[in-house]
Write a structure and sequence with these properties.
With about 325 residues, the chain is an alpha/beta fold. It has two domains: about 160 residues, Rossmann fold (3-Layer(aba) Sandwich), CATH 3.40.50; about 130 residues, Rossmann fold (3-Layer(aba) Sandwich). The chain has ten helices and 15 strands. A seven-stranded mixed beta sheet has the order 2-1-3-4-5-14-13. Helix 5 crosses helix 6. The protein is elongated.
Length: about 325
């Protein structure tokens, strides 16, 4: 009898361990790989701060941040090809080209890897963490332009590339708004600079020298706006040629304060990284549905909406001026 009681006590002592093991197995962190358009520029360093903040708040995710040194879709494709055999749970990519990258993302999905896009969209994804609503951003770019130059005038555009999904969408949105509301505005040239401050600087110099009566230069891509602003300032055209576009407050602070640039449009870059992590985690947990709000940590609730491919969320547009730029440090 004593031996039986001792055996039962020993068996009971083992029960908690038997119960805990399955729960422990479920605590394996979801492996999420986040790929920017390129690494090593100030803008994506700011995004990464938001990614790191979200990762600290979510113990059930493990984040890998990796990207190419040049903003080339071929580099991203090679990187994803190497990632597929490692079987992460999810890949989130800021595509340099929405079409060219689609086949390798489909290959990842066939291997059981979830795929979302962020920053630069792709045609092959389950979810898109957009920067801002494309049409709203184009509307606001035109609104800022008209505040500076009025409803008539020639403008030129410096973009990143002719295949970059964000920039092409913003230019299309600008054209729609101009056609509908400001037919006196005219885009006379569009040139790609990549994600290059120096490239944008050289293009802007040529615009200023070769386009008589130019009223404004729109620079799309965070590294490009400071290059255009520097060219306009050095040419003594500040206040005569408007400079409008998107960039970070840190890159544009001096140009806002000296009056070369009046308004810079963007979104909160760290918040975009933060929202990307929360969205990826929500997708893996099965919680992303059209019209159903989900909580994204300190950012509050976001409600996915249907789009032409799957569904998306977007951040609000921010405007930086000389009066508020010091409130932002990224």
């Amino acid at each position: 009898m004593h031996r039986l009681r001792r055996t039962l006590v020993q068996a009971a002592a083992l029960l908690p361990a038997l119960v805990i093991l399955p729960a422990a197995a479920q605590q394996r962190a979801w492996r999420i790989v986040i790929i920017p358009k390129l690494v090593g520029i100030a803008y994506y360093d700011a995004v990464k701060r938001g990614i790191d903040a979200a990762a600290k708040e979510l113990p059930d995710v493990a984040i890998t941040w990796v990207g190419p040194a040049q903003d080339q879709v071929e580099k991203q494709i090679d990187l994803i090809e190497r990632l597929i055999p490692t079987k992460p749970d999810l890949i989130a990519v800021a595509a340099n080209d929405p079409v060219s990258i689609a086949p390798v993302l489909a290959k990842a999905q066939r291997a059981g890897i979830r795929v979302i896009s962020w920053d630069g969209d792709s045609r092959q994804r389950e979810f898109f963490v957009n920067l801002v609503d494309f049409q709203d951003f184009g509307d606001q770019l035109v609104e800022v332009l008209t505040q500076e130059i009025g409803a008539k005038g020639d403008l030129a555009v410096v973009t990143t590339s002719f295949s970059a999904p964000n920039q092409t969408s913003w230019i299309d949105a600008m054209k729609r708004t101009m056609y509908a509301k400001y037919p006196g505005l005219r885009i006379v040239d569009v040139r790609p600079a990549g994600e290059s401050t120096e490239g944008a600087y050289r293009i802007a110099q040529d615009y200023l020298a070769s386009i008589p009566g130019l009223k404004a230069i729109v620079a799309l891509g965070a590294p490009n706006l400071p290059g255009v602003a520097r060219a306009v300032r050095e040419a003594g055209q500040a206040g005569k040629v408007a400079v409008v576009g998107n960039s970070t407050p840190n890159q544009m602070r001096e140009f806002l304060k000296d009056g070369t640039v009046k308004t810079v449009l963007l979104w909160n870059a760290p918040d975009h990284g933060y929202l990307t992590v929360y969205s990826a985690r929500e997708l893996l947990a099965g919680g992303l549905k059209v019209g159903q709000p989900f909580k994204a940590g300190s950012l509050g609730s976001f409600t996915p909406r249907q789009d032409a491919i799957s569904m998306q969320v977007a951040l609000p547009v921010l405007r930086f001026t000389k009066d508020n730029v010091d409130q932002f440090r990224f």
